[in-house]
Amino acid sequence: MEAQARGLLETEPLQGRDEDTVASADFPSMLSEEEKEELKAELVQLEDEITTLRQVLSAKERRLVEIKQKLGLNLMNELKQNFSRSWHDVQTTTAYKKTHETLSHAGQKATAAFSNVGTAISKKFGDMSYSIRHSISMPAMRRK
Questions:
Q1: Residue 71, H or E segment
Q2: pLDDT in tens, 37-84
Q3: Which of 3, 68, 86, 122 could form a disulfide with 73 if both were Cys (CB 3.0 to 4.6 A apart)?
């Protein structure tokens, strides 16, 4: 009996052979007329309860919309709040912090590299400018 009770409480999904066993079982013939009537009554009761719960849920959802409208909450505000909350959650993750740190360090290195390239180009232009001035002024000095 205990093994049977445990079997009813299992939470694992049915396996292939279990599905075959259930599919091949002829449950209606295994039930007495009294059991069938009890199950039919329970079925009707469950369907009624589900209908009632759907109606209650629908009424609660309408009330929720009314309250949000009165408070000035709309879909855009909710989306903004959800986005802000999600962004904050992302920023607090270890992966984000490490990535941010790595990219920040890479950005600093790139800035330094561009600065060095800029300095080198500037120096080259300065040298070229001096060469051009020098080459232009030399013939002029010789004419005098």
A1: helix 33-71
A2: 999 999 999 999 999 999 999 999 999 989 988 888 777 777 888 888
A3: 68
Distances (CA, A) of 123 to 65, 111, 113: 68, 18, 15
If you compute the radius of gyration of the chain from its CA atoms, what whole number of angstroms results?
40
Reported residue count of the chain is 144
Domain parsing of the chain, residue ranges: 1-75, 93-144
Phi, psi of 74 (to 5 degrees): -130, 180
Contact criterion met (CB below 8 Å) for 74 and 68: yes
Q: Residues near 90 by Cβ (< 8 Å), separated by ≥ 6?
A: 96
Angle between helices 94-143 and 75-91 (to 10 degrees): 80
- The three-class DSSP label of residue 75 is helix
Which class for 68: exposed (0-12), middle (13-18), buried (19 or more C-beta within 10 A)?
A: middle
